[in-house]
Every structure is written in structure tokens, then in C-alpha cells.
Amino acid sequence: MKVSLLKGNPTVYSANSYLIRGDWNKLDDINTLIDAGTDGSILEELESISTGVGKRRVEQIILTHEHFDHSGGAKIFKELYKSTVLAYNKLPYVDVKVYDYMDVRLGDRDGVILYTPGHSNDSICIYCEEEQVLFSGDSPIFIKSPGGSYSAYFVDVLKRLARLKIKTIYSGHDNPITEQAEEIIRNSLNNVLASKIVEGNV
User: Residue 141 and residue 25: Cα distance in Å, rounded?
Assistant: First the structure.
């Protein structure tokens, strides 16, 4: 698996996008874009990356949630590359509605969708066990101190994430976390558990 971070126009508020390819750009690898940014400004970066002869540059787009800074460019790239769009909410331009523990192909690796509401009611993470990587979108997994209130469902979300083997976290807005990723999630869980827990789904 090869992961390229795409940032687009620095003057436009947008989320990180990640292009996932197979190690050898084989025909059966699934070139996957995680989040599409606010607009089409990552296009130049996309076009500069070798994605395999005879392959669509972006075969599928997985949206971590529908906020505009993550989904705004999806329709542009769907039209340009004839991509399949996957998301938790079935928006008009979404082709596949994902669900918790749904299997997905990421480049040349297998991944799984994890439903992680908290930032929004349609938030998901994408996890690849073989590579031990987590694409976290805007899911709040870096909680530095106790305080505030969290739903019991979100506590369960963090407990699930804390059980995973994770070497790298690719988040929606920060630089990739390549050190102590599991410790960060465990600390966040402890801080949440020391805060107010309320009933509810999000």
C-alpha cells in the first residue's frame, strides 16, 4: 500500500485527502481517494502521481463524513474519473452506503469501515489491519485532557479503536501520526472516561 497526502490550495479551507495505491500499481488494485477536499484543487497533485497504466486514477472515493471540507470535491472527481463514491449517508452523488465493519479494498490491501459517530452522526474511520493504519477523518481521537461531556456510544467507539494495532493515523486535518499512535488513543479514552458520560448515540 502506498499513501499520498494531498492538501490542495493552501488559501482554501479544506481537509486532507489521501490517495491509496497498490505497491506495484497492478490492474486489480483499487486506487482509492479518502476524502475529496472542499473543491477540485487537489487535481494537480492527483494528476502528478503514477497510478498505473490502463487504470482509472481514482476508482473509488470514500468520504469519512459529509462536511463540505471533506466531500465538496467528490462530485468533481466522480465525474472526471467515473469514480464510485462511498459514504455512510446516502447523498444524491453517493453510490454505495457503507456500514459498520463493511469490507473495502484499499489499493492492494483489505480494509474495514468503522462507524465512529462523535464529530458527526455519519463519521467513519477506515482501518487496514495488515498495514496497521487508521484513516480517522475528523473523529476526535486526540483528546488531551478530561472535561466536557461525551456520549456512552462514543466511549464504546474509543474502546474499539484502543483495541486495534495502529502504527499510523492519517487524520482529516493534522499531519500523519507515525509515533505512539496507540498510546494517543488510549490516553484519549482515559481522558474521556474521566469526563461526564451521557446517554445517547452521538
Answer: 32
**Strand order from edge to edge, sheet including 17-21:** 2-6, 17-21, 32-34, 60-62, 84-87, 96-97
23-65 pLDDT tens trace: 999 999 999 999 999 999 999 999 999 998 889 999 999 999 9
54: Cβ contacts below 8 Å, ≥ 6 apart: 27
d(CA 197, CA 26): 47
Ordered by where they begin, the domains of the chain are 2-198 (3.60.15.10)
How far from each other are the two terminal CA atoms of the chain, in whole angstroms?
A: 32
**Contact (CB, 8 A) for 114 and 101:** yes
CA distance 41 to 62: 18
pTM over 0.90: yes
